[in-house]
Amino acid sequence: PPGWTAMTSAEHRPAAFFDVDNTLTRGTALFRFLEYWYAARGRPPHDAVRERQRLKAMTAAGVSREETNRAYFRLLAGAPAAEIARYAEDWFQAELTQGAFFHEPVLRALHAHRREGHPVVLVSGSFPAVLLPLLEHCAADHLLCTEPEITPFARTYTGRLADRPHQPMIGDAKAGAVRELAAAHRIDLTASTAYGDHVSDAPLLSLTGRAVIVGDDPDLRRLAAHHGWHRLPKAPDPLAVPLPEPNPSPPGALL
After folding, report:
1. Which domains are seen in the chain, by residue range?
2. pTM higher than 0.90 for the full model?
3. What pLDDT does residue 3 have?
4. Cα–Cα distances in Å, from 40 out to 69, 90, 247?
C-alpha cells in the first residue's frame, strides 16, 4: 500500500546505546566493585590490586579483552549471588555519595536522549549485579551485558559465563546483541546514536547512524576521522574507591 513505508519508518524509533566503563562512568566498574567487595569481606587491599595487575598484564601480553573478561568472572566462583548483589548496591551508593562517578558530558547526553523519548540502552562487558543499580539511577530502558553463570539452586557464581549468545559482551558481541534488540523493539539503527571509548566498541559504533567516541583512543580517533563521528572529551581519572568497613560475615547473616 502507498502509505506502508512511511508508517513502518514511523514505527521504528531511534535509540541511544552507551558503553559504560570510561564512557558513561569514570573508571572501570568491575575493578572498582572488586576493590569494594574485597574490602567489605576483610581482604587486604593488595589482593584487589594484584588481581587488577594480573589482568592488565594479560592484556599487555596480547590476551584478548574477551579472555581477560572471562578471567575476571573466575574471581566470583563460589560467591553467593545475593551477597554480590547486596555489596554491589552498597558500592554504588558509596560511589554516588562520594560524587564524581559519572562522566558528566556523557551523562548529560543520556538525559538529552531520554528527553527526546529515545530508549536508552547500556551495553557493557560488566555484569548485572554491578550494572542494575546504575541502570535504575539513569532510568535506562535496556541492559545488554556479560552474564556470569549462577547455579540454579545454591544461587552461587560458578566462575564461568552463562551459555548464551553474545558472551562476553565485548567487541562484535555488542553489535550482535544490539542488532537483536533493535529487531525485537522496532529500533531504527540508522537514526540511533552509540557512545564508546575503546576500539573494541568500534563494531557497536559502526552499527548506528550517528556515533560518538569518548576520549583519545588512537584507533577510535582514526575511525572517527574517517567516518565523521563526533567526539566527547576523555573521562577524568576517577577518585579512589570509597571503601567500607570490613564485614567478614555475609550481608543478612545473623551476627
Report:
1. 13-232 (3.40.50.1000)
2. yes
3. 37
4. 23, 10, 5
